[in-house]
Design goal:
This protein is of the alpha/beta class. Helices cover about 25% and strands about 25% of the residues. Strand 14 and strand 15 form a beta hairpin. The chain is elongated, with a radius of gyration of 21 Å. It binds flavin-adenine dinucleotide.
Length: about 325
């Protein structure tokens, strides 16, 4: 029989939302918790998707950050942010609550009123409350056209595979696209890359002022090649078999050949997780929940962070964690 453990709160996802939830719980005097992540570190999305040395902004996607709970951060580089979070988790004594390399598919309430979280064939955790903070980047948004098999390794969603000397095109018009584009130009060990920015609109209008300024600076001085105002119709392999490059067919009838495309189009709501957990969702597959408490239609089941917003931020995820904890604590009284 599977082993069973009962906790007050099971937190799914150890990104900013899940991590802040663990700290808020501890500060609220709730110690019997578990944080489960499919990756092998906390803040894994940030490890994977933020470029090296990236500045971690407090105000992100045009939203002014006001920290409303107990968790905050100082604006710094990606590496320093991770360090700050390591220290924060350690100083609050919650590091031993984290279980890594376990993917959770759903959570449903059993007849005893406790949520079942299946950790493995041999282990289930039963939880009085569950906080779902699984983000959106598990499934980055893909364009509508097909990715032919031979060039799939060259069609990426972050910069981790870029090799110096490559001809790279970044696709997207938001902050992430801008940071990837000018970030690549600024990386010391990527100086031989040729970087192009493709955005279907002719002008940047979705980036924050710093990213707009930086992106425009490199477009204006010619270091960032401008391919804005045109969409991509399709991509296909070109060149020697086994070493095919990417032929891009643009909607204006023009073509280009690249070593790598990096799509920065945001991420998709984890619909399957929500639906399989019987959480009611709206038109855009977003979970329907109480915006003050973050509680879904199911009592004791909360969704926070990027799951509930298509343009989330670290500060917002931190704040959501504090809203949830206030609700859980108020129900205990
Ligand atoms: C390139 C980029 C740059 C950004 N820059 C900034 C910035 O400068 N400032 C800012 O405020 N915001 C920035 N953001 C946004 C910010 O990173 C997010 O809003 C924030 O990380 C959301 O936190 P979260 O906890 O909701 O989700 P995430 O950080 O996505 O964390 C979700 C976690 O859940 C885990 N997980 C997913 N599914 C499962 C599952 N089924 N089972 C178990 N675990 C699971 C993942 O492994 C992950 O660790 C940026 C985003 C990107 C992509």
């Amino acid at each position: 029989m599977a082993s069973e453990k009962i906790v007050d709160i099971a937190i799914i996802g150890a990104g900013p939302g899940g991590m802040a939830s663990a700290i808020e719980a501890k500060l609220a005097g709730i110690d019997n918790i578990v944080v489960i992540d499919k990756a092998s570190t906390h803040n894994d999305m940030i490890h994977k998707f933020y470029k090296r040395g990236k500045r971690v902004d407090k105000d992100w996607m045009g939203r002014k950050a006001e920290f409303e709970g107990n968790v905050s951060f100082e604006e710094c580089s990606k590496e320093e942010y991770i360090e700050q979070m390591d220290k924060l988790l350690e100083s609050h004594g919650v590091l031993d609550k984290f279980v890594y390399d376990v993917e959770i598919w759903n959570t449903v309430k059993g007849e005893d009123g406790l949520f079942i979280v299946k950790v493995s064939e041999d282990e289930i955790i039963k939880a009085k409350n569950v906080i779902v903070s699984v983000g959106r980047m598990g499934k980055p948004n893909k364009p509508g056209y097909k990715f032919p098999k031979p060039i799939r390794p060259r069609l990426n969603f972050n910069l981790s595979k870029v090799v110096n000397g490559e001809k790279v095109m970044i696709i997207g018009g938001g902050d992430t696209a801008g940071e990837y584009a000018y970030g690549l130009i600024e990386l010391d060990d990527m100086q031989d890359c040729e970087v192009t920015l493709n955005y279907r609109r002719p002008k940047i209008n979705r980036m924050n002022p710093i990213n707009t300024e930086m992106t425009m600076k490199y477009i204006n001085n010619g270091k960032l090649l401008n391919k804005m105002g045109v969409d991509i119709e399709s991509v296909e392999p070109v060149g020697e078999e086994g070493d095919e490059r990417v032929l891009v067919n643009f909607t204006d009838g023009k073509h280009g050949v690249y070593d790598r495309l990096v799509f920065a189009l945001g991420g998709t709501s984890p619909k399957d997780f929500l639906v399989n957990s019987k959480i009611e969702t709206g038109k855009w597959d977003e979970p329907l929940m109480n915006e003050k408490t973050m509680e879904t239609n199911i009592e004791g089941l909360y969704t926070i962070g990027d799951v509930v917003t298509d343009q989330g931020s670290i500060a917002l995820a931190f704040n959501h964690a504090s809203f949830v904890m206030k609700d859980i604590v108020s129900k205990q009284k």
